[in-house]
Design a protein that fits this description.
Length: 385
């Protein structure tokens, strides 16, 4: 066993000496490996977890050469300063690849793993036509901290825009009720309606039935604020059991898995507050709900497992070189700071993001995914390895 003092000294964590922490020799040090090695060195588990969090500079849930921001072979406070300097990431990778041949292999393996996760999700995708212009989408989503054989179902609705197509939408949702879904969690990620009058008795009844035996949450979108009726909209949803998660959080235990759900307000019309995860939550399954992914401004914590959003309606029209989202960007209604326009993307080694196609459209669809409702079944990523 490498001497504790040589690894955890006042100058930081020596990556070359610390290779003995990497029990499976995959070029990275996971939290379990770190705790086990620390235990052999006489360091208690709680202290080991704190040390791990301090050393995980880029907050991707592992220790690797990616945390060595200044390329000196150690992880220390100096690396935190380096991380805060914009435009340094690509320069750092280029420099480190020359210093550490293992880094190139590690980055390649991590990129392949990210592609593998998204590829797996895409392969599990099924879609069922409810009406010619409305679909039920189904995905299996591998996450790091889903326990054992747990399967947790999240029903995701976004961009209902009841003011535009209340009758058609309610009819579509009534047909979805005929399916056997039984979600554990139901979430609405904003743009429900511009005025509470569109949440009539029939509409509310359908939304209630969709989430009858599940935990129910919502966040607000920019259109919910347009006529100053956001409080009335929230009140009606709360009266039928939906919890307003806008700038709030809840912890759930479903089967054997602990989940932390956070909601962030809309960045165009609301007052968003970016949540900070308590240390003890960072080893749970953490899910963030927001209407517009731009709210994170590319500064999301690496400890998020899943981010669910909407706003973009799949772009509505895709002409090849340009699409509807490009026009949204020109009008400053979307910045695309996270470089994601639709569907699934791995934002970090741990964090997956899904942008719903939405339940409605502002214009006719052309060459994009049809409107619909999505069922995400969360499983352990160990199952796909």
């Amino acid at each position: 066993m490498t001497n504790r003092n040589r690894i955890l000294n006042e100058k930081g964590f020596d990556l070359l000496e610390g290779k003995n922490f990497d029990s499976n020799e995959d070029g990275i040090i996971a939290i379990g490996e770190f705790i086990e090695a620390c235990s052999k060195a006489g360091i208690r588990e709680e202290k080991a977890k704190r040390l791990f969090l301090e050393l995980d500079i880029n907050k991707d849930g592992i220790l690797s050469f990616r945390d060595d921001m200044n390329g000196d072979g150690k992880i220390s406070i100096e690396d935190t300063y380096q991380l805060l300097q914009p435009g340094r990431m690509q320069e750092r990778y280029g420099r480190l690849e020359k210093i550490y041949p293992l880094l190139k292999e590690t980055i390649k393996a991590e990129n392949e793993e990210l592609k593998g996760k998204v590829s797996y999700i895409d392969k599990t995708k099924t879609k069922q036509k409810i009406t010619p212009n409305f679909y039920f989408y189904n995905y299996k989503v591998p996450l790091r901290y889903i326990k054992g054989k747990d399967e947790i179902k999240i029903l995701h609705l976004s961009d209902l825009h009841l003011e535009r197509a209340n009758g058609f939408l309610v009819t579509n949702l009534e047909k979805v009720l005929e399916l056997t879904i039984n979600p554990d969690i139901t979430v609405l990620t904003g743009d429900i309606c511009e005025d509470s009058k569109y949440l009539d008795k029939k509409t509310i009844n359908v939304l209630k039935k969709l989430a009858l035996f599940s935990e129910k949450f919502f966040v607000l979108g920019n259109h919910d604020y347009l006529k100053g009726k956001e409080n009335d909209i929230a009140k009606i949803l709360e009266e039928v059991g939906y919890i307003n998660l806008t700038n709030d959080c809840r912890q759930l235990k479903i089967q054997e898995t602990l989940l932390n759900l956070y909601g962030v307000d809309d960045c165009l019309k609301g007052t968003p507050t970016t949540p900070v995860l308590p240390e003890e939550y960072k080893f749970h399954t953490n899910i963030l709900l927001t209407h517009n992914l731009d709210v994170l401004r590319n500064n999301y914590s690496g400890y998020w497992d899943l981010i669910l959003s909407g706003h973009l309606h799949s772009g509505e029209i895709d002409l090849g070189l340009v699409d509807g989202i490009d026009f949204l960007m020109l009008s400053n209604n979307y910045k695309n700071v996270n470089l994601q326009k639709r569907g699934w993307k791995a934002l970090t080694w741990r964090t997956l993001s899904y942008i719903s196609p939405g339940l409605s459209r502002h214009t006719l669809n052309f060459n994009v995914e049809k409107p619909g409702i999505s069922l995400l079944t969360l499983i352990s990523e160990e199952i796909i390895k």
